UniProtKB/TrEMBL annotation:
Gene3D superfamilies: Spore Coat Polysaccharide Biosynthesis Protein SpsA, Chain A. It holds the Pfam family Glycos_transf_2. It comes from the Bacteria. It comes from Pseudonocardia zijingensis. This is Glycosyltransferase 2-like domain-containing protein. Residues 53-106 form the Glycosyltransferase 2-like domain.
Amino acid sequence: MIMLSVVVPATDAPPTLPACRAALHRAVAALEAAGGAAEVVVVDAPAFQPVCAARNSGARRASGDVVVFVDADVEVHPDALVRIAAAFGDPALTALFGSYDDSPSRGGPVAAFRNLLHHHVHQHAGGPAQTFWSGLGAVRRQAFLDAGGFDEQRYPVPSVEDIDLGARLVAAGARIELDPRTQGTHLKAWTLRSMVVTDFARRGVPWVALQLRHGRAGSTALNLGWRHRASALACVVGVGALLVRRPAAAGAALAALLGLNHGFYRLLARRRGPGEALLGVGLHAVHHLTAVASVPFGVARHLRDRRNDG
């Protein structure tokens, strides 16, 4: 097996870091038992260094052939590094990323909804990918350095820097895979406010701008698939119908949303109970509506960035 370097950005002294490190210790032990080797590089200084800079710094310090990025609020499964090392036995593979697991969240119903939504999307998108995820993702170190690493200037706060990296890798001819079996438990305690702010300012707006910048506005990768677009449309139609007092149309839109996402709502009900599954439908609608609201702002950011770059 090849040498892995696990990079954990932790310059903001996250309280979840001890749990993250303990899980990595177990994963490294499992890898060594299988005949592999890994080092763990925790970037915890200087304090409050931006996450992109912390990851880039860790990758430069790494000595392994493959850099495995793990967020400080993720507990990797014991077999995660074994799976990653085995996958990179294929010399044609450039990068690989995994998924959150379906363990009930410690952070309440909003956190459970977000983590299970991520799990559901990634579990149904295994195989070749056009993007990258740095919560639990691995990339050949030389390919990462050749691509310039994460864009520290464009993304000074956590945003879509990993998606941007994936787009640049693919443009350079890289092969990226999503392996749903490579999993970790997410420890983040989401709130409704943090969900909306993240979906709009940290994800939606910069994601739209990124897609336009790379000429991939029609991409169907992960959260941009036809099912997600149709769900967003159903939410917009439903809200519009309520505003003009058309209950039948609103009911039809709700039925469409339920039909399009019945698998996810069943997962919510199975893991969190029917009450939280019902709440999850509402949270899902908020998630989609926030994404729709971000589109014009994302277009405006793209036009602004193009003027500045010109």
